[in-house]
Amino acid sequence: MTDLLRPVQPRGAPAGSRQPSVVLAGVTAAGWAAGVGLIAITALVLIAWSGDGRSGSSAAAALRIAADVWLLANGTPLHVDGSTFGLLPLGLAALPAYLLTRAGASLARTVGVSEAGEAARATAALAAAYAVLAVVVTGPATTTHVRPAPLWAFVAATLLAGAFGGIGVLRGAGLCPAAWAALPERLRLAVHGGALAVAVVLTGGAVLAGGALAVSAGEAGTVLGALRTGVVATVALLVVSLAYLPNAILWAAGFVIGPGFAIGSGTTVSSFDVRLRPVPALPLLAALPSAPHSWLMVQLLLPVAGGLLAGAVVGRRQVEVALGRLLGTAASSGLAAGLLMGLLCLVAGGPVGGGQLAAVGPSAWRVALVFAGEVGLPAMAAAWWTARHPRSEEWPADSG
């Protein structure tokens, strides 16, 4: 089993021989990533299918469901009876992301990537092959009721493999430090500060989501009991909830930032307003608040704390620069934080069928805009203060 989880690599070539073809090695790496992901998801689906004697579905139907789940984990929306299900389960999407990162690293070592151009070609070969495989999987995954779109599968798999496969290629080739160092210093500082601010808010979102789940554990149990499902179906519902737990953390981050999130059209869950309609019977959704609580307003200080931390980093690294340049870099950390959080919220939401649940999750552009301001302004103040009051690098002399 451990051999299956190890990317396939050809034996080392003798000295003076040609390196393996980038295209062939890319196809091999993509096939390994797609194959292991499909096998893992198929195993989970077959376990659930075999344990539920009341389903009445065939093994072929279970395999088609596994293909649909794999496509969904890779970002492909599913058209189900005229509606669209496109809410990406981020917990499950971590599997292809991890496999593609390992495949990219193996590909870089196989073809001997040593510079940026070679890394780009290797990444393109991996992404193209993976995208074609995703399109191929849409064939057996299609039924009269469920239809994954081949074009969406191609685009989503290309983006996923290009991002995580590219990271793997850079890591496998040892080019990550050089790629980071090649960026302008101000950009590196802005990204560093913005990432710290995002980490602060995501930590707060995780604590908030975890606390809400703990408080609503009894209500979640009531939801499961009302469904009157068997043991296997109950476990499957819990697995689905775990797969969407990272989504819930990002929704809670949107709540922390201010705009909140929606569970369908005409709904909102934020610190200032809670308007809900009937929601699907999932244990995870039992943690939704029924009304705004004034004590939760304290969480709005977390983005400010993230901005102060980002500004402190910028100010400590740019002590002897002009004030305008210093404040510009600090403001840029707010923009970086907004863009990163907006991107995360974009992939954390999506449609869950048609009608009321056509829009689920936070509004990416609202979160990005508000968060950029919440981080940028405190960052500018903290950067100015930190740069004007640098820490001493020497310990005071011992008077004794």
Break the fold down into its secondary structure elements and pairings.
Layout: H1 22-51, H2 59-73, E1 78-80, E2 83-85, H3 90-111, H4 116-141, E3 146-148, H5 150-173, H6 176-181, H7 185-215, H8 217-227, H9 231-243, H10 245-257, E4 262-263, E5 268-269, E6 274-275, H11 301-317, H12 323-348, E7 360-361, H13 364-388
Antiparallel strand pairs: 1-2, 1-3, 4-7, 5-6
Low-confidence stretches: 10-17, 393-400
Round the Cα radius of gyration to an integer and report it.
24 Å
Average pLDDT value? 86
Give the strand line-up of the largest sheet: 2-1-3
Largest β-sheet summary:
3 strands, antiparallel
Helix-strand topology string? HHEEHHEHHHHHHEEEHHEH
Tally the helices: 13
- Number of domain units: 2
Question: Could you describe the 3D structure shown?
Answer:
The protein is mainly alpha-helical. The protein folds into 2 domains: 22-181, no CATH class; 185-388, no CATH class. It contains 13 helices and 7 strands. The protein has a 3-stranded antiparallel sheet with strand order 2-1-3. It has a two-stranded antiparallel ribbon with strand order 4-7. Strand 1 (78-80) and strand 2 form a beta hairpin. The termini are far apart. Mean pLDDT is 86; it is low at 10-17 and 393-400.
